[in-house]
Amino acid sequence: LVDQRLVRQAGHVPVFRAVERGGADLVVAALAHQVERALEIRLVGGLGAAADELVARLRNPTPSSEPSVLSKQNVVFVAHSMGGVVVREMIARYTSLFRQKNIGIVLLASPSRGSDWASRARYVARILNNKIIEQLMTDSAALDDIDMRWTNVMRDNAIPFLKGADAFETM
What we know:
By secondary structure, this protein is α/β, with parallel strands linked by helices. Helices cover about 40% and strands about 20% of the residues. It has helices spanning about 35-40, 45-60, 80-95, 95-100, 115-120, 120-130, 130-135, 140-155, and strands spanning about 10, 15-20, 25-30, 75-80, 100-110, 160-165. Strand 2 (about 15-20) and strand 3 form a beta hairpin. Residues about 1-25 and about 30-40 have low confidence and may be disordered.
């Protein structure tokens, strides 16, 4: 039950506030291409810098001085494309921040195994010193590292109340 009138900005991360039937707050942080641009990700810093920037913004109180997203018990991340990779990196990197929370993740077309488009842009990425494009290539050691750490979080049940779904195309 998301009341669209309650849509507001937390830093630059759009947040939808809903009240569950039991009266508990549920915060949905929607992460998409527009949000990635709004985060002013330093392309030279790569996916790790993007995850650091995202967690910093989620820690900040909203412009209306309401508590930060990370102060909430129930948080759902909805992420598209690179946003999904950044969310996985953030959670794998900052597991302790999420350990006692109810976390939901919905990934839509996130290139967790790499992007053919990024691979095609290999030379442009190197000329522009664009670390994120390099890290999103299909043969990326950075994506392998994120996947390994994410697998460890899941295997070790490091965040007991983590649920998620991943929607993607197959050829």
